[in-house]
Amino acid sequence: MEKHEGLSITWLGHATVLYQSPRGKSVLVDAWLDHNPATPDSDKDLGAVDLMLITHGHFDHFDDCLTIARRYGPDIVCNFEIGEYLGLRNIEKVNGINKGGSVELHGIRVTMLHAVHTSSIREGDSFFPGGEACGFLIQFEDGTRVYHTGDTAVFGDMKLFGEIYKPDVAVLPIGDLFTMAPPEAALAAKMIGAKTVVPIHHSTFPALKGTPAALKEALKGSGIEVAELKPGGRTVLRERAAAR
After folding, report:
1. What is the pLDDT of residue 240?
2. Whole-model pTM?
């Protein structure tokens, strides 16, 4: 299989992130594209999705999951309750797991981790139980590890996850109001111990006041790199895992 330049991380706006693995697999986390005001129109047609991960059921993470599932037919990893919801809507290739559990698909190992947040699914005027919100530890084919925290507050077990999984990258929400703000995200980054942080879940709406600049200031002197992206922008980790 063709070897690529490394792990590519594209922020599609708000909390939607597309990973292109070192072996060319597309991994989409939290599909909100069609009505996401931050997603550039040129990035809404993904071409292909091999694997889709769902952290929780809130609209700004979930509203396009059924559309993406039907359009591209990816394997899906989510919590058990969301898996049941998708199954009742005739979505196939669903892996409903729970916190601490792992699955390996397309040579990529996905472990579901805890997050401090809520979850529900909106359908018209109705809301359905969405299980518990989660994050994911994603280990790519070359061993590169990303801790995609999902929507969360800071919590002490992030240090434990850092010790167990030793992620190269942490993808953290920083917007405040519904998630961590930059000061808490900086503490989370230090506990996780990743060398690179990608801030997400900010700037979409005026109420999300946390900024990458504030995160950089809070991390000054820590040695942790903040990969600040614009919607549609990407960063590439070139064989980062090989340097361990």
Report:
1. 52
2. 0.96
